[in-house]
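[step 3/7] inverse_fold.run input=structure_tokens len=228
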């Protein structure tokens, strides 16, 4: 067994004896305990950070919360968080109207250049920043949200309250690195792997509801699909 693999196995066993929020031994102490070079140890610790098993807190490191598992289904982020016993939350970043590009106009079935509503929010779970979501909505369907919708609450619940029923969606997920602005909003770094989600949702009549581009921290969120 190689030295890096031995160290990783030892760290995994150490984590098995700890619970969420417990302090994780500092790098110097671990290097001495296992008799390895600091560089070898740093690589193993970086892997644990990326996997979301430990997290930096101030000058120290603690055992991280388990990842928020989001179902790949026509349910909202709120529903996924509540299902895992986590408290959902949102921070509004921008809420404006933007001219529809050719691609967006085609996806929302509107005229190119017409104004569409864009809602950008930071997604929280138990106060932790886990995602950055940008949703485009056709203004002719949901323009009244300007007066009625609280952006710190569930958008899907508000859409359903208008009588619209979600019928289907096409969703794509890919691994990316965050741009500096995105990393800053998510309190992360540009080196941390992210999960980029693209979704186009339709109602039961086949009329477009939304186009969503969301970025999730790979160390805090995982996606799950149920296959039958």
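[step 3/7] decode complete -> sequence:
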């Amino acid at each position: 067994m190689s030295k890096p693999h031995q160290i990783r196995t030892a760290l995994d066993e150490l984590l098995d004896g700890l619970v969420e929020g417990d302090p994780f031994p500092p790098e110097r102490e671990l290097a001495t305990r296992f008799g390895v070079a600091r560089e070898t140890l740093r690589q193993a610790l970086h892997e644990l950070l990326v996997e979301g098993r430990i997290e930096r807190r101030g000058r120290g490191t603690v055992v991280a919360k388990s990842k928020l598992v989001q179902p790949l289904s026509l349910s909202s982020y709120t529903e996924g968080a509540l299902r895992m016993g986590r408290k959902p939350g949102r921070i509004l970043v921008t809420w404006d109207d933007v001219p529809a590009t050719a691609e967006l106009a085609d996806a929302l079935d509107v005229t190119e250049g017409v104004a569409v509503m864009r809602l950008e929010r930071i997604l929280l779970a138990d106060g932790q920043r886990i995602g950055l979501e940008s949703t485009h909505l056709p203004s002719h369907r949901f323009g009244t949200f300007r007066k009625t919708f609280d952006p710190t609450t569930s958008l899907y619940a508000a859409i359903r309250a208008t009588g619209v029923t979600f019928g289907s969606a096409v969703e794509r997920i890919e691994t990316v690195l965050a741009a500096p602005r995105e990393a800053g909003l998510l309190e992360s770094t540009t080196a941390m792997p992210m999960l980029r989600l693209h979704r186009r949702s339709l109602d039961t009549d086949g009329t477009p509801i939304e186009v969503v581009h969301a970025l999730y921290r790979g160390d805090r969120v995982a996606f799950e699909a149920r296959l039958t």
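[step 4/7] annotate
The chain has a mean pLDDT of 90.
The radius of gyration is 21 Å.
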